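Is this the right way to post structure tokens for a design question? Let me know if I should format differently. Anyway, here goes:
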């Protein structure tokens, strides 16, 4: 616990095990401590200390980035050109290709 002494990793791991066992047991702290011959004040102090340490260090979770199969239409836009044509432009489009497409659409007479 935070009293200016260096952390004893083995002691912390043991208390983490006991607290985990208590959480799974469904027992009150008093009964659990009595069964394991633990001092209740130490149990509460370590539970508080471990919560504070965990909150200070944060928790990292694994993340997997999965690419989309098709571009999202929510981020696409649509252009209305002569004759009511509406080419849809997906995110990440090539500007040069879009210019060519628009030029072609403007050249062709509507059906």
């Amino acid at each position: 616990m935070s009293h200016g002494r260096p952390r004893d990793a083995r002691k912390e791991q043991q208390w983490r095990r006991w607290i985990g066992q208590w959480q799974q047991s469904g027992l009150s702290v008093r009964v659990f401590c009595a069964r394991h011959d633990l001092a209740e004040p130490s149990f509460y102090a370590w539970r508080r200390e471990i919560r504070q340490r965990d909150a200070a260090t944060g928790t990292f979770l694994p993340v997997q980035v999965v690419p989309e199969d098709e571009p999202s239409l929510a981020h696409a836009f649509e252009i209305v050109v002569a004759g009511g044509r509406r080419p849809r432009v997906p995110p990440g489009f090539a500007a040069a290709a879009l210019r060519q497409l628009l030029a072609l659409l403007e050249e062709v007479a509507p059906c």
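Format looks fine. Someone answered above. Worth noting: Residues 9-57 form one domain. The radius of gyration is 32 Å.
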